[in-house]
Amino acid sequence: MPVITLPLSQPFSLDQTLGCGQVFRWDRAPDGTWMGIVDSHIIRIRQEGQKLRFSGAPTDFIRHYFSLDVDLAPILASIDNDPVIHTAIAQCQGLRLVRQPPWECTISYICSTNSNIPTIRRRIASLAEQFGQPVESAGGTFYTFPEPSCITCKGHDGLTVCRLGYRQPYVYGTSCTVTDVECWEDTIRRLPHEDARKELMKLHGIGPKAADCILLFAFQKYEAFPVDVWIRRIMQEHYLPELATGAPLTTREYDTIRTFAREHFGGYCGWAQEYLYAGRLV
């Protein structure tokens, strides 16, 4: 297997990165090997100290996907400005944001609303199996994530088998809207953060949290700060005690949290969000 030797100055934790909930199509074997499909690459990867052993994709692809080309030290230094985030960084040392394929990420986060991770994984796997292309490997058959035209080819009712619930018309509607994935991706990538956010929220089923996740994980707009129930709780407990408790999250409260995060953590507040989120269970 090819090997990437990680410099000591650039910490990386494969388990933290793939196990923190930012991606949904990876599985960890008992021996510590992770296996997943990204685009058409069936990747097996294992970390042994400062070495990454992998197969299924070129070295440059692995480096790019896992953000190994990102200098982590200045990012963490810029957000490490209070005891809470300092503890989260120490607990989750080596956590990096992966660069997810934007179209797959978009549909994944539509499927994620009001759901737990096992259910999200099931929905995404079902979409891939029903509408993606099979890719054979020694570990079995995997499926690429389907293009919009593949999702819409059987009409709205063709999605029923995937058991998406109320998200079904959202997935179908967004797939009808994004007919040219490359053009759509280029448009979002070129837009300033707030304009890109507004553009994403024009799509069916994309609310503030899903839009911020997509901007952060697929478009590397690191000023995005997704707010879910866990982040809201952390922010209320440690940073914004004036926030309401027990009531549904309003748009106004969401904007209060993300504005504070941008001011408090700076332009890499999205990295702070992921460390705070991952650190809650450590």
What keyword list fits this structure?
282 residues, TATA-Binding Protein, two-stranded antiparallel sheet, 11% strand
How many extended strands? 7
Terminal residue distance: 31 Å
Main sheet overview: 5 strands, antiparallel
State Rg.
19 Å
Regarding CATH, which class of the largest domain?
Mainly Alpha
* Coarse morphology: globular
**Rounded average pLDDT:** 95
Number of domains: 3
Secondary structure tally, helices: 14
Descriptive overview:
This protein folds into three domains: 3-69, TATA-Binding Protein (2-Layer Sandwich); 102-217, Hypothetical protein, domain 2 (Endonuclease III, domain 1), CATH 1.10.340.30; 229-279, no CATH class. 48% of the residues lie in helices and 11% in strands. It is built from 14 helices and seven strands. The chain has helices at residues 14-19, 59-65, 72-79, 83-91, 102-111, 117-131, 148-152, 168-177, 181-190, 193-200, 208-217, 229-238, 251-265, 269-279; strands spanning 3-5, 26-28, 34-38, 41-48, 51-55, 134-137, 140-143. The strands form two sheets. It has a five-stranded antiparallel sheet with strand order 1-5-4-3-2. Helix 5 (102-111) runs antiparallel to helix 11 (208-217). The two termini are 31 Å apart.
